[in-house]
Amino acid sequence: MFFPYTQSALLFVDLGMDVYKIDRACTKFGMPMGPFRLADLVGFGVAVATGMQYLENFPDRVYKSMLLPLMMEDKRAGEATRKGFYKYEDKRKASPDPEIMKYIEKSRSMAGVSPDPELMKLSEKDIVEMVFFPVINEACRVLDEGIAVKASDLDIASIFGMGFPPYRGGVMYWADSIGAKYIHAKLDYWTKRYGSFFKPCSHLAERAAKGIPLVSKSQLQFIDTYM
């Protein structure tokens, strides 16, 4: 359920959003690192291979960005090569690298998209929503498909597997603090504007329409007790 974290970020960079602004918004929200710093840490080879698997199996749920492959062609593959979205000159210290703009512009050209002026005006709150609401949507699919039984299990997975800030209770707990109706409306708007990557799944749509929380009361009590 975590792959939209980087996928949405790559989409918005193609549409004109700044790499480092996205990472800053995510770390201020409480993540240990933003999606681009995370991609550097993991390595682009892993990210591209994983992305291809998702593209093959879930083509409607994946945004195919050429940014990582383009950077890899120039031996930029993250921390291991000391250059990725950031440059690394000493002991993993990450510094922004203006050189990435040439890859972004080429990726944008290959995707046939232009910068969206609306995205340039976004607040950090807006950026966090655009990065994490697709994660919530995917988490709802995981529940709907029976891969996970309880939303609280996904909260625990998001904290220990993704680094989601524990004080926010997990990704589904946080989603309920915002409301399924609001999340669904945002995803629906972005679907019309940016494509099917954001299309709300039936599980989320049903709960938004009926005003049903994503996490049950008993699960909320468990999270409040142990998180």
UniProtKB/TrEMBL annotation:
Keywords from the UniProt entry: Isomerase, Lyase, Multifunctional enzyme
Coiled-coil intervals, chain numbering: none
Taxonomy, superkingdom: Eukaryota
BP-aspect Gene Ontology terms: fatty acid beta-oxidation
GO molecular function: (3S)-3-hydroxyacyl-CoA dehydrogenase (NAD+) activity; isomerase activity; lyase activity
Domain 3-hydroxyacyl-CoA dehydrogenase C-terminal: start-end pairs: 1-88, 127-206
PANTHER family: 3-HYDROXYACYL-COA DEHYROGENASE, PEROXISOMAL FATTY ACID BETA-OXIDATION MULTIFUNCTIONAL PROTEIN MFP2
Protein name, entry field: 3-hydroxyacyl-CoA dehydrogenase C-terminal domain-containing protein
